[in-house]
Amino acid sequence: MKRLYITDLDGTLLSPEGSISAKTAAILNSLTAEGICFTFATARSVYSAKPITSALDINVPCILMNGVSIYDLRADGYLVNQYIPVSASEKVIEAFEREKAEVFLYRFNDEVLTCYYTKVTTRVMQSFAEVRRNRYNKPYVQCADLLDAADGRTIYYTALDEHEKLLPVKNAIDSIDGVDYAFYEDTYTGKWFLEVFSAKASKSNGLRYLRERYGFDEVVAFGDNLNDLPMFSEADIKVAVGNARDEVKAAADYIIGTNDEDGVAEWLLAAHNKT
């Protein structure tokens, strides 16, 4: 049986500090050297996901931005991108503007994924941008109107704010054809992410693509947060870390150690030793 192990990053594989522990790296690299197929699915873009996982031997393309992109780390290139229709982008931007909620727009300029924004005044959005600009060299471009930036190569919108601030935006996006969203609490700040992408994109669709393209008979998925539930719906075996939200634990077949205890790596090692 050809089996794929796929894990979320933040809150699941990454430590509470947002890094790969030396123990997790040692275990996972020993397992991939023995032949297991291992990758990850994350809301992160390639700019932060690639350096954060650089200590790992990822041997299957990964899922980025909640399923918007499939990226081959070994070949250093995109395999699939799901774009948002321009007509849907216009409505998404209007929904954010109605609530005066700040948002980042992601689109490709040639082959470079670039982030556009009009203004960033909230502390949490400023911090989000600063970390990604300074630590990961993600390109940011300020513009007068996001509608001018929303072309046919737009792939993603992301906002980070209070639940109450973003809830009306989420409700408005519910009725927009051509897009879907993920709405969940941030692992690190307690604020909420609202991420908008093509209706063709999700962690479940990304996982389905990997299963079909590479011929996996079984998929084991690890997660902790609400945006992992679509991946769970496609997986054969669902595994929640001990620090996962109750909704994720309820959907899981197994509940394992926390992300502060190298839960994913320890479970994989034990499972591999049984076979």
Mean pLDDT: 96
Taken in chain order, the helices and strands follow as EHHEHEEEHEEHEHEHEEHEHEHEH
- The radius of gyration is 18 Å
User: Low-confidence spans: pLDDT under 50, at least 5 residues?
Assistant: none
Q: Helix/strand-derived class? A: alpha/beta
- Tally of DSSP β-strands: 14
Counted by DSSP, the helix tally is: 11
In terms of DSSP E residues, the strand content is 25-35%
Largest sheet: 6 strands, mixed
Shape: globular
The neighbouring-strand order within the major sheet is: 8-7-6-9-11-10
- Distance from N terminus to C terminus (CA atoms, Å) equals 12 Å
Helix content: 25-40%
In short:
With 275 residues, this protein is an alpha/beta fold.
Show the helix and strand layout.
Blueprint: E1 3-7, H1 9-13, H2 22-33, E2 37-40, H3 46-52, E3 62-64, E4 69-72, E5 77-81, H4 86-98, E6 104-109, E7 112-117, H5 123-134, E8 140-142, H6 146-149, E9 154-161, H7 163-173, E10 179-185, E11 192-198, H8 203-214, E12 218-223, H9 229-234, E13 237-240, H10 246-251, E14 254-255, H11 263-274
Parallel strand pairs: 1-2, 1-12, 7-8, 12-13, 13-14
Antiparallel strand pairs: 3-4, 4-5, 6-7, 6-9, 9-11, 10-11
